[in-house]
Amino acid sequence: MSADRTQESKKHWEKHPRYKSGDAPSARAFADPKLERVCRKLGLTGSETVLDVGAGTGHLSAAWTRRGHPVTALDWADAMILRNPAPRRLRGDAARLPFADNSFDVVAEASLLHHVPDPVAVLQEMARVASGPIVVVEPNRNHPPMFLFSLLLREEWPALRFTAGHVRRLAKQAGLVEQSLETSGWVYQNKTPSALAGWLGRWDTPCPGAAYIVGAFEER
Ligand SMILES: C[S@@+](CC[C@H](N)C(=O)[O-])C[C@H]1O[C@@H](n2cnc3c(N)ncnc32)[C@H](O)[C@@H]1O
User: Fold this and answer.
1) At residue 56, what are phi and psi to the nearest 5 degrees?
2) Which residues, given as ranges, of the chain have pLDDT below 50?
3) Is the overall model pTM greater than 0.85, yes or no?
């Protein structure tokens, strides 16, 4: 991504008034079942500190908070981070996190990596400030509606590369070891109508053609 495209991307997120809040039914149905499974697999109890990178309005931050975790949320766009419900929130760049090494027990992101020019560098930066797992949630290009949606919007074109295999390769290049990797979910975090979200959320179990890739990694 060129410097111009990076600026364009930042402007895009500064003007995204229709992005749903972390408490919206689709955000809950998107995030809660995925975190429930990841936390069970990783043995997280709720006491671990979490940094949510590219946290936006808080679809993931709110879900970590609902599980009891102390959450810090970081995003580079004021318009997004000011709507994030996390008690600690700050403006910052995912490629240069303003924290010392090993500052958080868990570092997580949702739908950020496909928006950054160098996802490997962002994963390395997430690993630097994490003392424990790095949790990644990204759209799955192999889910047909996600493919079409990504094709139609220029901002989403980089998502056309994202499959579980692609995330595995990025993590490997970042020097991370896989703890779990699956695809799951039929709720689109910002698109599924509220009336359908709760019902569809019940079917969030691992399935190859599902809408999102959910991975957990650790530093080698
Ligand atoms: C699709 S939204 C996802 C927001 C949130 N994680 C969620 O799942 O609802 C992408 C977010 O990444 C943020 N973002 C993109 N590039 C970033 C960067 N380099 N540093 C920090 N935030 C960034 C945008 O401002 C936006 O809020």
Assistant:
1) 55, -140
2) none
3) yes
